[in-house]
């Protein structure tokens, strides 16, 4: 139902035919059935005589020969028009005209349960005293695969860049991520699009293939992704990094594979992915060479074998059934498990999948941690939280809930310059991050952008350090859910965290969990 | 010629022994039917498996020749990039998936999803193949001397599929083209190389109807 005064009418006088040639055009007044517009008898100018009569039908904008009219809601659409917002209406028109569903990049928008309604509980007189951030040390190192492989990954800070493929990202963006990882001692990830050759040495801090000149300390790690599309994958590819990640799913489109449209398969992408220029590069929704959990165990076994038992094996999960999925990864032999909440980003996905499929990151972590505890491997098999992690505060909360590290995917893109336009799939990224066009890529300097990424990690590391020490801990591995409280019932229900004021978990969580799970983590 | 008895070995022990042994004459492996991933990532040499082979035999093969004297399990030569894998008996589900190069020859029948996502290998089955053979192929050749099941060459993107017998149903995004003299010469050469009794002139050729079959 239209509301009086619900719409703002803007007429661009520079474009308007009538404004430039009074009397020559009166289309808006002719098509508007509500008397919003009127022609001044004396001057011949078109005027908006009755704003309040506008119902937002936009027939004036539709017929304006100069495209000079814009109608916008006068107040947030979620008050005046929901569920039939302008964007919903336009989406339906688009489908009606083309028969196509909407595709877009980046992640879920709008309100989903997130870390914001969780607060950090500082130390005071009743608990161990807080620690001095300036004078005392805080251990944030994370070791992955220490008991299972010859060369464990030792993250200097509890962060990773999650998998983002070459193809979805430009070569320069991939290089910047590798440099940022080298500068901070964290790990970058090839993603499923094969290896950009430069990643292999940049991630370790070297400026050339020969590895004679180490430019960036302490040097980082390169995780090689093994996925359902298997782009550019060979035995040499698997041995070019420091770990192998078996991708099962991702937050933005769990249950779907990846899809690089032929338009983005340029010569460079073609060379790395090993597919012809212009071909659609489809990553299937599942592994065609895995049908059972035993198959997955055999896959992990041969991946370890091909890499000479040197590297840890990661798994990456989309947000589905965290307890059962994490349990399956543990059984398959994972050294680390990344679980990507529904807010996780993508280069291209059907809009309805990004918006409506999967569960929030905060609801993924507790069941995942429970599975690790039930198998007796919590903090031994490392849990990495992904999906909408924005800063050190979110990362701290994820780690206090039981994760060992956190990943910045969308935040890394933003640190590189992205302004979040949700159009990654078009290949026209003006910041050169998700484009394969030379003129766009030239705008991204890998070294300068690598420094921005490193700065971001340094800042987030300091944030985690502040929070860890004000909670009375000397190491991130000491964090526990006791360091957090939920600020509303909904968040307490989703996470099992103690509710502020109530000072205990909600009854159904208390009934489910043994007392030790939410116990005091202070040591 | 070295012989390795795999009966009491695990995958690590067998593959380590293979890597150390494949520098000279062919290496013979016995009792390998319960091991999965034999010869993973080998770059050269020749391995002859005298028993059945488990799943993933020749996975990530990067240049070796691997022969299985009897039957092989699932996912033969998975993600191979170079080399040759020959199965004298039957091969189970998913033979020659995700291969970038090399040659796979199955002298018996092969299961469902043979050559799925093949990206450049030549995969020859002298018997029949199951359903969905050649699904999502991007490059390379699938040559089936016998018959095929349902959805043959489904969503073919690029590459070529040849068949000497009949299919139960053909997949999406396919079209049948006439066999050229080059096609016949190519098949004849493969048949001679691998001593396969078949007549190239009776084969049908299937290619992709569109190279961009997705997105709506």
Radius of gyration of chain B: 17 Å
Q: Helix proportion of residues of chain A, in percent? A: 25-40%
**What structural class results from the helix and strand content of chain A?**
alpha/beta
Biggest sheet descriptor of chain B: 11 strands, mixed
Q: Number of domains in the coordinates of chain A? A: 3
Low-confidence stretches of chain A: 515-523
CATH domain topology of the largest domain in chain A: TIM Barrel
Write down the overall geometry of chain B.
elongated
Structure write-up:
- The complex is a heterodimer of chains A (523) and B (216).
- Chain A is 31% helix and 13% strand.
- With 523 residues, chain A is α/β, with parallel strands linked by helices.
- In chain A, strands 9-19-18-16-15-12-11-10 form an eight-stranded parallel β-sheet. Chain A has a two-stranded antiparallel sheet with strand order 1-4.
- The termini of chain A are far apart.
- Chain B is α/β, with parallel strands linked by helices and 216 residues long.
- Chain B has a single domain (32-208), classed as 3 Solenoid (Pectate Lyase C-like).
- Chain B has two helices and eleven strands; from the N terminus they run βαβββββββββαβ.
- Chain B has an eleven-stranded mixed β-sheet, with helices on one face.
- In chain B, helix 1 links the parallel strand 1 and strand 2 (27-30).
- The longest helix of chain B has 13 residues, at 181-193.
- Chain B starts with a strand and ends in an 8-residue tail after the last strand.
- In chain B, 55% of the residues are buried.
- Classes of the chains: A alpha/beta (523), B alpha/beta (216).
- At the A-B interface, helix 8 and helix 10 of A face helix 1 of B.
């Amino acid at each position: 139902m239209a509301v009086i005064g619900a719409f703002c009418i803007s007429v661009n006088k520079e474009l308007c035919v009538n404004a430039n040639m009074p009397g020559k055009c009166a289309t808006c007044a002719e098509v508007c059935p509500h008397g919003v517009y009127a022609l001044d008898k004396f001057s011949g100018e078109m005027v908006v005589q009755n704003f309040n009569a506008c119902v937002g039908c936009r027939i004036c904008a539709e017929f304006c020969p100069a495209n000079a009219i814009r109608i916008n809601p006068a107040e947030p659409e979620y008050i005046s028009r929901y569920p039939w917002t302008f964007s919903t209406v336009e989406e339906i028109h688009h489908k009606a005209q083309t028969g196509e569903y909407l595709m877009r990049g980046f992640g879920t928008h709008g309100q989903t349960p997130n870390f914001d309604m969780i607060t950090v509980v500082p130390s005071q007189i009743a608990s161990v005293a807080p620690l001095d951030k300036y004078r005392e040390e805080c251990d944030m190192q994370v070791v992955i695969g220490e008991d299972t492989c010859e060369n464990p990954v030792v993250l200097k800070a509890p962060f990773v860049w999650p998998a983002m493929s070459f193809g979805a990202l430009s070569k320069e963006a991939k290089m910047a991520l590798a440099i940022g990882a080298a500068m901070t001692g964290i790990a970058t990830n090839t993603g499923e699009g094969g290896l950009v050759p430069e990643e292999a040495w940049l991630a370790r801090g070297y400026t050339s293939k020969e590895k004679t000149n180490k430019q960036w300390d302490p040097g980082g790690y390169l995780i090689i992704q093994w996925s359902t599309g298997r782009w550019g994958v060979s035995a040499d590819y698997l041995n070019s990094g420091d770990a192998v990640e078996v991708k099962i799913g991702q937050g933005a489109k769990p249950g779907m594979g990846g899809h690089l449209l032929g338009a983005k398969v340029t010569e460079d992408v073609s060379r790395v992915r090993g597919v012809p220029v212009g071909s659609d590069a489809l990553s299937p929704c599942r592994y065609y060479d895995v049908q059972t959990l035993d198959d997955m165990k055999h896959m992990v076994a041969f991946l370890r074998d091909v890499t000479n038992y040197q590297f840890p094996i990661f798994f990456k999960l989309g947000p589905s059934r965290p307890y059962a999925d994490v349990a399956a990864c543990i059984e398959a032999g994972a050294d680390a498990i990344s679980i990507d909440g529904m807010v996780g980003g993508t280069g291209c996905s059907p809009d309805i999948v990004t918006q409506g499929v999967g569960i929030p990151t905060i609801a993924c972590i507790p069941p995942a941690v429970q599975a690790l505890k039930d198998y007796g491997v919590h903090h031994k098999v490392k849990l990495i939280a992904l999906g909408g992690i924005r800063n050190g505060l979110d990362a701290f909360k994820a780690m206090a809930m039981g994760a060992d590290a956190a990943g910045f995917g969308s935040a890394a893109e933003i640190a590189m310059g992205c302004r979040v336009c949700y159009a990654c799939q078009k290949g026209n990224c003006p910041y050169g991050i998700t484009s394969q066009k030379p003129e766009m890529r030239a705008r991204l300097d890998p070294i300068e952008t690598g420094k921005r990424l490193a700065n971001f990690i340094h800042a987030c590391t300091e944030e985690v350090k502040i929070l860890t020490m004000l909670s009375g801990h000397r190491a991130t591995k000491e964090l526990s859910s006791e360091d957090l409280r939920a600020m509303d019932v909904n968040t307490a229900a989703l996470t099992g965290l103690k509710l502020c004021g109530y000072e205990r978990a909600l009854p159904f969580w208390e009934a489910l969990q043994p007392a030790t799970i939410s116990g005091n983590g202070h040591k | 010629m070295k012989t390795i008895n795999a009966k009491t070995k695990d995958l690590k022990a067998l593959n380590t022994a293979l890597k150390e042994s494949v520098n000279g004459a062919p290496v013979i492996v016995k009792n390998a039917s319960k091991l999965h991933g034999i010869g993973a990532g080998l770059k050269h040499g020749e391995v002859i498996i005298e028993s059945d082979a488990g799943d993933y035999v020749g996975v990530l093969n990067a240049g070796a020749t691997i022969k299985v004297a009897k039957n092989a399990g699932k996912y033969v030569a998975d993600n191979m990039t170079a080399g040759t894998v020959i199965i004298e008996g039957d091969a189970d589900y998913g033979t020659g998936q995700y291969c970038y190069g090399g040659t796979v020859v199955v002298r018996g029948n092969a299961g469902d999803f043979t050559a799925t996502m093949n990206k450049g290998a030549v995969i020859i089955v002298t018997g029949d193949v199951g359903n969905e053979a050649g699904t999502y192929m991007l490059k390379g050749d699938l040559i089936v001397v016998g018959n095929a099941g349902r959805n043959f060459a489904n969503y073919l993107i690029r590459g070529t599929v040849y068949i000497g017998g009949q299919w139960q149903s053909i997949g999406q995004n396919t079209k049948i083209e006439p066999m050229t003299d080059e096609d016949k010469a190519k098949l004849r050469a493969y048949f001679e190389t691998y001593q396969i009794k078949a007549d190239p002139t009776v084969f049908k050729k299937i290619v992709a109807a569109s190279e961009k079959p997705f997105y709506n």
